[in-house]
Amino acid sequence: MTQRILNHFRTQPILFPLVVCALFLSGCGGMRYRADYNSFNAAYADSSNRQMLLNLARLDQHDPTYFLQFGQISVQYQLSSTLNGVVSNNIPSQATSHIPIVTEMGTIGAGASTTPSFTFIPVSDDKVAQELLLPVPPDVIYTLFQQGAPVDQLLRLMVERFEIQLPNGTMMTYSNTPGQCDVRSYATFLKICAIAREFQLDGHLKLQGTEQFVPLADGWSSKDQPAAKDLLDAQDKGFIYQKQSDGTWKLGKNELMPSFVLDGESDETFERLKKNPVYSEGISLQNIRALLSGAGFSVQGKLVQDQTSGSHLVLRSFLNILAAAAQEQTNFDVAVRHSAMMSHIPESELRPILQLKWDGTSAKLLPPLISLDYQGQSYQVTDEDTGKVDESASWNRDVFRLLTELGTQVSIDISKFPLPTTLQVLQ
Predict the structure, then answer these.
(1) Alpha helix (H) ranges present in 27-75?
(2) Could you give the 3-state DSSP secondary structure of residue 272?
(3) What domain range is 60 assigned to?
(4) Is the residue at 19 inside a domain?
(5) Which terminal Cβ of the chain has fewer Cβ within 10 Å, N or C?
């Protein structure tokens, strides 16, 4: 009996690897989940970047854009594992040494299957057209500025033009369209962007937001007080009823109206910029300081603006933002680099808002975030390897990131699209 007990325990180290294998198989589900999560995440990021760059390449060559909205990604897992072990301890009747013969048999089995499904929605709808063609809402630039985005990048990317009221009452317009407007006007636009960025770096440029009631329809009002049902229905749709001074009621919504202003401690920055010939020449620095110290620049996102006086920025639509970013590189070289105005633009703005085409004459480039060929032209999102860690070292990648953030903030609600096209891939 004692010998059989000892023999029994001698078999335990032999079964131990089988037990370990069983435990390993029981954890395959978590490992598979983590691997698939990383793979899908990387594939989604690469596809999103590629679609953005592809549309920029299309716009650079004046081709139409196409958007494919990514919908739900679902994955079904089926994992199985089996473990069987048989141990026998026999002493043959004719054995003279009475040494037991111990035999063990074990089988291990495992199986796994994954069934992912992806939903792609072609973005082609009248509601989508409104989202893409109407000016970007002012609260978008407000949000990005509050997050710390460089104001010169925001202005050059999102603003179509400055409409500035000078102290003498004269209205001046400075366009952000190189190659399509007067070079002097565009150079002044870039100088204003550079001045604003200097004030932002020193912490003196602020973006204050005030809510303003905007009627849904001009000239419409009701003498009767809205019923409770009308108030709730309006609230569900994002509107409110507001009582006017004459006792009537108007239907509309409160919109955020941001304005760029300076705090009261910007004298040091102003004196520093005056010592730089590029900033001190002309009256741009003095005018911008006076405007920002007063009412400031309001941000206009509506097609029709009630305000007839004051300085404001006119925002672009999302499609115009993409087109400007895609085409400015060529237009910038034509309008600025081959004109006498180049010496009147601050060095920080002497580059297109986004450079996607590299001719090989540049210094060493960083590994591209994404690259592709379109119609025989190579496009890539990268920057020159300057060995520095400053704003210029990541200018193009930062602007591309801004574009992707704008794409998400001006994104389309996929729940409005019926009968999405679903592609199912089996493995």
Answers:
(1) 28-60
(2) helix
(3) 2-122
(4) yes
(5) N
- Final residue in a domain of this structure, among 122, 157, 182: 122
Question: Regarding predicted confidence, which is higher, 167 or 173?
Answer: 173
* 237 and 191 assigned to the same domain: yes
CA–CA gap between residue 100 and residue 108 (Å, rounded): 26
For residues 300 and 314, the answer to whether their CB atoms sit within 8 Å is yes
- Please give the torsion angle defined by the CA atoms of residues 369, 373, 378 and 384, in that order, rounded to the nearest 10 degrees: 10
What's the CA gap between 222 and 331, in Å, rounded?
51
Question: What tokens does 139 get?
Answer: 């609260």
CB atoms near residue 312 (< 10 Å): 24
**Segment 363-417, tens digit of pLDDT:** 789 999 999 999 999 999 999 988 887 888 899 999 999 999 888 765 554 444 4
Summarize pLDDT for 238-256 with one digit per residue, the tens.
Answer: 888 888 888 888 888 887 7
- Is residue 154 within 8 A of residue 142, CB to CB? The reply is no
What's the token pair of residue 47? 């596809």
Please state, in angstroms and as integers, the Cα–Cα distance from residue 290 to each residue in 165, 202, 307, 358, following that order.
11, 17, 20, 40
Reported as a single tens digit per residue, the pLDDT across 67-95 is 877 666 676 666 665 655 555 555 555 55
Beta bridge partners of residue 206, listed in sequence order: 261
Of 353, 382, 404, the residue at which a domain comes to its end is 353
Q: In which band, very low, low, confident or very high, does the pLDDT at 109 lie, cut at 50, 70 and 90?
A: low
SS3 content of the chain, % helix, strand, coil (to 5): 45, 25, 30
Instruction: For residue 23, tell me if it sits in a domain.
Output: yes
Number of domains in the chain: 2
> What does the alpha-carbon distance between residue 297 and residue 311 come to, in Å, rounded to a whole number?
5
Are the C-beta atoms of 59 and 323 separated by less than 8 Å?
yes
Q: Is residue 137 part of a domain?
A: yes
Nearest Cα neighbor of 161 from 182, 175, 179, 141 is 175
Same domain, 59 and 156: no
Identify the bridge partners of residue 259 per DSSP, sorted by sequence position.
208, 298
Do 235 and 131 lie in one domain? The reply is yes
